[in-house]
């Protein structure tokens, strides 16, 4: 599986919602960008308790989903931006159904691995409220499993827009990102499924612990 990276997007923490700050507004970068354990350099996360770090180093929100949101929200300019949902990688024809926890991809000279689905937060909804009636976007993400996902970085490297994103190793075929999200984040998993997730070595440790707690 090989897809083309249409844009690599990064951001800086800026004022957002009064006293809050956020780096959700990711903008395309030109040229070659270095990739380290914490992701692209530089790329900020305002609240490191819930964003960023080695288990959430690089975020991909499928460009395919932008059409879904246009149908729901209307033709707003924000959806023309490749990093509209805080995504670092702009890629088409690749969704949560197509990839699995533990899939490994070559991105430029870096090696990255899918570590977890993205759990949506209120900042997505607040960002879109500025330009549209956001119609309960977080709830819609949860119900539709249009969540996106995170990669960890296994080998540092560098990449640029136009490079391929190529899967070189498939993770757990039983656990697509979509299934993992539905089971753990959307709350639809059985106790057996949650126990299985808790033992999945390539799932981020915090989510393995969450799965175990929910299975009890």
UniProtKB/TrEMBL annotation:
SUPFAM superfamilies: PK beta-barrel domain-like (SSF50800)
InterPro entries: Benzoxazolinone_Detox_Enz, MoCF_Sase_C, Pyrv_Knase-like_insert_dom_sf
UniProt xrefs under Pfam families: MOSC (PF03473)
Residue ranges annotated for the MOSC domain, each copy included: 26-168
One of the record's GO molecular function terms: molybdenum ion binding
PANTHER family recorded: PROTEIN YIIM
UniProt name for this protein: MOSC domain-containing protein
Species name: Erythrobacter insulae
